[in-house]
UniProtKB/TrEMBL annotation:
Top-rank taxon, per record: Bacteria
Taxonomic classification: Bacteria, Bacillati, Bacillota, Bacilli, Bacillales
InterPro entries: Acyl_CoA_acyltransferase, GNAT_dom
Domain N-acetyltransferase: 1-177
UniProt organism field: Paenibacillus xylanexedens
Protein name: GNAT superfamily N-acetyltransferase
Gene3D superfamilies on file: 3.40.630.30
Length: 178
C-alpha cells in the first residue's frame, strides 16, 4: 500500500472512495434517500478543485494499492471554524469498506498530522458523526471528545462530536491493539 500526496488525475478515485464510504459507513445514520442519491459526479469537482488549489498549509493524501486503485484518502489543514482552541484539523478520512481496520486509516491520519506539524500546528480537532463507528478509532489514536454540535444532513439533524488532541506530538500515542 502506497500513501502519497494526491495529484492531478486522482479526483475520480477520491470521489469514488468518498461516495462509497459514505454509503457504507453512514447507512442507518444518515437518511437512506440522501445516501442513495450520492454520486461520484457530485463529489468530483470538489476534489478536482482541492487538488488544484495547492494551498501550502493543507494536505490531501491517498492510499493506493499496487495496481493503482485509490482505496482511501485523508485531508487536513488549518482549523476552519475558529470557535475552539485548535489550530489544526483533520477534515476527512475515508476508506473503502474492504480496507477498513487494516492500519491504512492510521497511516493516512499520521501523514496528515506530520504535515500539520511541519506548519507549526500544535493542537488538532476532527469532527465525526456521533454514531459513526470511526469514533472508536479517534479515541484509540488519543483523541478526547471536547465538543458536540448539531449538523443537518439530508433533512435530518444529527450530532457531531469534536475529538481533540491538546498536543499533536502525542497523536497515536494512546493507540491500543484491536
Amino acid at each position: 500500500m502506497l500513501i502519497r500526496l494526491a495529484r492531478e488525475g486522482d479526483a475520480q478515485g477520491i470521489a469514488h472512495v468518498h461516495t462509497e464510504s459514505w454509503k457504507t459507513t453512514y447507512r442507518g445514520i444518515v437518511p437512506d434517500d440522501f445516501l442513495d442519491h450520492l454520486t461520484i459526479e457530485s463529489r468530483l469537482s470538489q476534489w478536482e478543485k482541492t487538488i488544484r488549489s495547492g494551498e501550502k498549509d493543507q494536505i490531501l493524501v491517498v492510499a493506493e494499492q499496487d495496481h493503482g486503485n485509490i482505496v482511501g484518502f485523508a485531508c487536513g489543514g488549518k482549523e476552519r471554524e475558529g470557535k475552539l482552541p485548535y489550530d489544526g484539523e483533520l477534515y476527512a478520512i475515508y476508506l473503502l469498506n474492504e480496507v477498513q481496520q487494516t492500519g491504512i486509516g492510521q497511516q493516512l491520519a499520521t501523514h496528515v498530522v506530520h504535515h500539520l506539524q511541519t506548519h507549526n500546528m500544535k493542537r488538532l480537532i476532527i469532527w465525526a458523526l456521533e454514531r459513526n463507528s470511526a469514533c472508536r478509532f479517534y479515541e484509540k489514536m488519543g483523541g478526547t471528545p471536547v465538543q458536540t454540535q448539531s449538523i443537518r444532513i439530508g433533512g435530518q439533524d444529527l450530532i457531531e462530536v469534536g475529538y481533540g488532541w491538546e498536543d499533536l506530538s502525542l497523536f497515536g500515542e494512546k493507540s491500543l491493539p484491536d
